[in-house]
Design a protein that fits this description.
Helix content of chain A: 55-70%
Strand order of the largest sheet of chain A: 1-2
Structural class of chain A: mainly alpha
Order of helices and strands of chain B: EEEHHHHHEEHHHHHEHEEEHHHH
Largest sheet of chain B: 3 strands, antiparallel
Shape of chain B: globular
Order of helices and strands of chain A: HHHHHHHHHHHHHHEEHHHHE
Structural class of chain B: alpha+beta
Number of helices of chain B: 15
Distance between the termini of chain B: 49 Å
Radius of gyration of chain A: 23 Å
Oligomer: heterodimer
Helix content of chain B: 40-55%
Largest interface: A-B, 45 and 53 residues
Strand content of chain B: 5-15%
Number of strands of chain B: 9
Number of helices of chain A: 18
Strand order of the largest sheet of chain B: 1-2-3
Distance between the termini of chain A: 92 Å
Amino acid sequence: MSGDVLFYWIVVPAIKIALVMAILPLMVALFTYAERKVIAFIQVRLGPMRVGPKGILQPIADVLKLFLKEDIVPSKANAFIFILAPILAIIPAFVAVSVLPFGPEVPGWGELWYFKFWLVPLANLCGADVTQPLAMAITDLDIGLLFLVSISSLGVFSILFAGWASNSKYPLLGGLRSAAQLISYEVPLGFALIAGLLMTQTLSMNGIVLSQMQLGWSLLWLQPISLVIYFIAGVAETNRVPFDLPEAETELVAGFHTEYSGMKFAFFFLAEYINMITVAAVAVTLFLGGWLPPLHGLLTHVVDGVRVPREGFLGDVLFSPPAAFFFFVAKIAVVYYLYFWLRATLPRYRYDQLMNLGWKFLIPLSMLNLFLVGINVVVHGSLGLPNFALVGLALVNIVTVLAVVHMLRSGKARDGKQALGTAQ
Amino acid sequence: MFETKELEINMGPQHPSTHGVLRVILKLDGETVVGADCDIGYLHRGVEKLAEHREYYQALTLTDRMDYVAAVSNNLGYVETVEKLIGVKAPPRAQYVRMLLTEFNRISSHLLWLATHALDIGAMTVFLYCFREREQILDLFEEYCGARLTTTTFRIGGLREDLPAGFVERALSFINDFPKKVDEYEQLLTNNRIWILRTQGVGVISAADTIAWGLSGPIMRASGVKFDLRKARPYAAYDEIEFDVPVGRNGDSYDRYTVRVEEMRQSARIIQQCLAKLPAGDIKVKVPKVRPPKGMAYHSIEGPKGELGYLLVSDGGPHVYRMKVRPPCFVNLQALPRLVTGRLVADVITLIGSIDIVLGEVDR
């Protein structure tokens, strides 16, 4: 085995996997804390304040509590599947993260000071060539997005299994709701992704980011409606408010995980939050320019038909790997904030209304959107579009958005005040 | 090939949104409810029987503990019934203070209803906004009589004590701000598409049905029946106060919501007038030892949840011979099984909330 293979195919991925496995749960802990604080802020209260300064250690206390809790398997439950379910939830959640690009490929990483003191000696030990590029993703698959979507849809099995194996009525109802919901919303989610992919012409996650750099625009500006559809479907996929029917606590107690306690429950919880990160990360990668700095079109210029970062301090700093990582996480945090905001604001849909929204509204809309984007791509080609064509595409999309919003508003049922007569 | 079976599910008595210890036995076909049966009595304490061992002023404390979120209303109904039985009338100042506190209590009861109803449907923030204002009302109660929920503050023939110094100003500053707070709740719900989807057309009761089933209060008015005891048979000094009775048209959960929200605004109006008109004078008439003559009296008031009636029977002695309560929650709850049949599980939650029950009163 040559040194390069040992280093680039075994050592580096192992390090990356270890880092992701370590950082992701920490990020989840941070996000749960942020969620509680943000919602508390919206609801005029303080949120966690007791553990640590301003309650910052609350997530750690929560995890410790879950570790110490008795791990119960109900006596009437199917023990094997009952234990299998949380494992099936957590594995796809982690595996899906493996294709996310946290930053650009780093060509001359051997020269960078933050690699020099640890990774370079390791490479020398393996006898590897330090001039090969280093991807800032566990793996940059050519079918990255497809892989991610297929893996994350496996999560539905865990919910179904949990609902069925608990041998209890509320979890069963929760599991059924969940299965129907996930299958319904995967369709508009897929269509929204395809609309984006028509522009980027690649499934590789890093390739998607790079093609947005070549376009000079993030897809957000060109296809806002795809982003909206994707985000709504994504919220439904992760069972968050207003689509949290499978675990609607005021209806089904705790839904599919009613019978779970301790670490098994923690696995479901962790999986849900990692899925949220994944959904947010895909939105960021495909629509918000991934690890690129905001307004990257202004920071790049065309040299020999290829867009590259502008020379000088700004280009060097903003496109460097640490900055890329920062932008990526910051954009995820922004999308995450939307989750919190929704949770604090909206009531919950009813089961049939959820299905109506998915099948009668989102799917036709996403197909229409796909059709419009398709026409544009056929007429103009995808990459290297002239700027006026991009503006045209954006306009078409924005008009569609407005039309849809108008439809929503005019479809609004009778007004509250009208319904009310008064008697003296 | 496949056998289908109805799923029987116990919603409650331990369930996050059955508002206490209501147990609803649901028969489900998938998500559709095909049968519902309310099982009550988990909070039965025998309030009516307990009253029989007590003297008239002692039985007052029992009434607090029926609808514990509207204790002041319960007190008022009981005290007025005893006054009717012995034939005394409280002085004007006492009447106004009674009205003032009862309307504060109506607001606090409606706030608790709105908070939990919205939380049941998933709107979490409304819950905390409502509790913010409810807290201020409870603080006012505490300032007046020392208790926040079970106030036991009215006395036969008047009040125990006058309003403390500064109470009027504080009540006024709260109530003048209150309509703006109601706007805040409405901003989150009234035109919210999901809220509309979840409540409009859910649990429609026709005006004729509300009368046939004996439903009262906001549920009845939401169906379009203009009946409010404060207008129909004025007690305390409601005939001297100006206010509107909001009425709905469709009799669904959304109309019950709009009617209750409007009632909060009207209560604020009543409180403002009470504070402005508050007459000077005694707060209590002299009532010698309470020994009502042999006979009985029935009196009912408009509680936050509907017609709250008391029937008191006296045998001429110092003890209550028999007390019978006409509890609005108990009567209104009987509509639930009919309303939920044929609807989805999520609607059961909407409807339990929409009827506005307090199990303390249902079970007594």
